[in-house]
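Annex B. Sample input.
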Amino acid sequence: FELYTMPILPMDGVSAPHLEVLLRIVDDDGRVLAPAALISSAERHGLMPRIDRWVVSTTLENLHSVDPDTFLTINLSGLSIGDPEFTAFLLDELDARQDIAGRLAFEITETAAVRSMATAQALIDALRARRCRVILDDFGSGLSSFAYLRQFRIDSLKIDGAIIGEVARDEVQRTIVAGIVAVARKIGVGVIAEYVEDAETLEVLRDLGVTMAQGYHIGRPAPWVGARPVSSQIAR
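Annex B, continued. Sample output.
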């Protein structure tokens, strides 16, 4: 395993810059692989909480190497959200590093949160009590997205990439994004747009009031230079 980071650009003049922590796999030949195949298999075999432990531990051990004004966002799998042992591990790790815990944000997919609603809300409350931020990822992928917004005490939502895709050229998609921004503002939640691939899309999203943007136009995933993996025993 290796960690990469991908920038999230603030556009509101208020938000701090963020880096999303991404997992990559290096094979025996030194090739860097996207983790999709591994994660799919790990989910089937119930191993994702162990992988998420490794990501959390490695991130916390290396957070000192990142600019102190930058937040790091960590993705949590649905299996981890519903795992009491992982939750206990995560909160213990944050309590042991109270000086840096406030620089973290955790991304929870809308699908995972809805599937384990009570558990997800309890975890969200516990994270926010430790000054961590919470981002509802893949927002808009569910049919009842707006209804769920009132169920979760989150800081930001990340619009599903399928909605952002042609926003610069598709009036319907612009209207959908404008609606999401309007509702988010009403309840005090930031809006992050992903899959921003060109300058035109970025400017349209800025005009629509999106808080932050992420995508290849902003910056591609890059190795987290200097990040040293923690012992594999952490994940056992």
